[in-house]
Amino acid sequence: MSAYAVITDSDNRMLLPHWMEQGFGSGWTVPGGGIDPGEDPADAVVREVFEESGYQVEVAELLGIDNLVIPGERRTPSSGRRGIALQNLRIVYRAHITGGELTVETDGSTNDVAWFTPSEIDRLDRVSLVDTARRMAGVIS
Q: Which domain of life is it from (predicted)?
């Protein structure tokens, strides 16, 4: 299970980190990620957003839950479970920035972070969760 945040600014730009998995793939994504055992999903998304963007956020509302099944042959090598299918429930929240400053994560799963307008997002190499989250939040071009 994982938790993600849709974060927009007053110009309707959306915050997206750039995900990369060595030897597997990359793309722009929604800030967020895995929930630690026993961690509340809303706390997880606050932690993940800070790690990936440098921003402190407050969760405003639950936008929805998305179900993703990753076939075993598509699992990342680092998972150690290649060949075993994974079902992932992705909890998507709307969140608002309360502090911090834009900072690129070091030694993590992302290597960049930036703000994009809806039309810019349409042209990005992005993971499917971006479009799912945009639909949930009504942030489309």
A: Bacteria
